[in-house]
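Input.
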Amino acid sequence: MEQTLQQIQSLLVNAGGKILLALAVWIVGRFVISKITGSLNKLPSVRKMDETVRSFLNSFVKILLNIILVISIVSILGVPMTSVIAVLASAGVTIGMALQGALGNLAGGIMLLIFRPFNVGEYISAAGAAGTVREITLLYTILTTPDGRKVTIPNGSLMNANVENFSSEDVRRVDLKFTCDRCEDFRKVQEIAMAAMEANEKVLKDLAPFVSLGGATNEALEFDVRPYCKSGDYWAVYYGVIQDVSEALGKAGIKSPKVRIVQESE
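Output.
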């Protein structure tokens, strides 16, 4: 009986020592991983990388180091790796089905990195969401909406969706429609709208703004108003032109000047 108790005590001490060692390795390992990933971003070669690639690399290294840490802890606990491999092999089909979505997202993340339909900091609309790209990880892309919401989209969904990138080009066109009373002189309305746009400092002059009669009804004339601007000035020009043209038409005595929004991109 005494010999049995000694054996049990010895087993508990041995197991407790392994558990404490594994716990210590986990704490130290997590600390080291955070330091490595932090130092990785400070390397000159990494800092020269595009922010999208840097974010993706950081995510990949973090996952890889955590896998190595888990394997080390399993080894410390005395679990034979051959047994672990055998269990994983026997459960391969189940694990594969469970990870099907994750693997699809991983493949999507790799494809996003290769084809680069968008980069961090750009404004996109895809998979039913729109916002500024904040981060691209191995599995998900994180957007921030203009009203401050965080949207997480699986990379697999992004690769199978139409992606509209509003920041990729340096120049954008603002599309607006103005209407006025049918009895007005359409040439006069065109001249007033054109002068109002040309007076706006953010409207590009090398790409001339466009004003044309686009349609008419029994009550109204409809004009297409299309100034060009730098991508970063889109909203300033959008609201500025609405205000400038509306005020100019009103001061000129144009009857019933109205604006109809035809495009709201972001």
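The CA atoms of residues 174 and 235 lie 9 Å apart.
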